Amino acid sequence: MIKPSPLVLAEKIILGIDPGTNIMGYAILVVKGSKTQVLEFDVINLKNHTNHAVKLKNIFDRMQELITEYLPDEMAIEAPFYGSNVQSMLKLGRAQGVAIAAALSRDIPYVEYAPKKVKQSITGNGNASKEQVSNMLAQILKLGEMPKLFDASDALAVALCHHYQKGNNGQAGTKSWKNFLTDNPSRIVKK
């Protein structure tokens, strides 16, 4: 009798994003089975630009570079929290939208996670501080020194949250325009 070969666990690359208009965090996480490995996590520093449109272009360009370099299978992005400053919320929403557009332009599906969901997933406490999230990430992923800016560790937390939620999130990996159009042909307007 011939024994079947063991299943080869596919590798998945997750791009995690913590959107921001002055500093945007990003992380690249590789998942193979239950093992995770951090390839990179850092920030896109936009503080030197005063023009919001230039910031958005820089976000798009850097996202395209990351996608080209790492070829992520999925993107996880933190949903904006609701603040009292409407102008700040609009700018943050634009930054998030540009990051999503960059992913969708390369057919990379994305999922949004609320900040509390990310914190709950990493620390067990939806009200955990950024320091607590960063410290827990260092322990879980066996990382040495964490970056000084929490935006990078927040992006890593979003990516890891996505990995943890994948089995329980029926919408994970399905939010691409291509999938949407395939699933909703009646919504296509022909001129």
TrEMBL record:
UniProt lineage: Bacteria, Pseudomonadati, Bacteroidota, Cytophagia, Cytophagales
Pfam families, alphabetized: RuvC
Active site per UniProt: 18, 78, 151
Cofactor note: Binds 2 Mg(2+) ion per subunit.
GO CC term, one of those recorded: Holliday junction resolvase complex
Subcellular location: Cytoplasm
Official protein name in the record: Crossover junction endodeoxyribonuclease RuvC
Required co-factors: Mg(2+)
